[in-house]
Design a protein that fits this description.
This protein is of the alpha+beta class and about 70 residues long. It is about 25% helix and about 40% strand. It has a four-stranded mixed β-sheet, covered by helices on one side.
Length: about 70
């Protein structure tokens, strides 16, 4: 199986435990779709993960657009 080069997955760790992940996926230049999964609710982890995905996408990867 070939890796999906258009997808970046960031893992979410809270208290030393894996609690979810954030994906930036897509094949168009300058654009990715953001999605996330969290195992624990009401801790703000989904919001924090989404913010991290945006920071990584725009700041590190230099994307022009992120949708979700």
């Amino acid at each position: 199986m070939e890796p999906n080069v258009g997808q970046l997955r960031l893992v979410a760790v809270h208290g030393g435990e894996l609690v979810g992940y954030v994906d930036l996926a897509g094949s168009e230049v300058g654009w990715r779709e953001l999605g996330y999964v969290v195992e624990r609710w009401r801790l703000g982890l989904g919001s924090a993960g989404a913010r991290l995905g945006l920071v990584c996408g725009f700041g590190v990867l230099g994307l022009r657009e992120i949708s979700g």
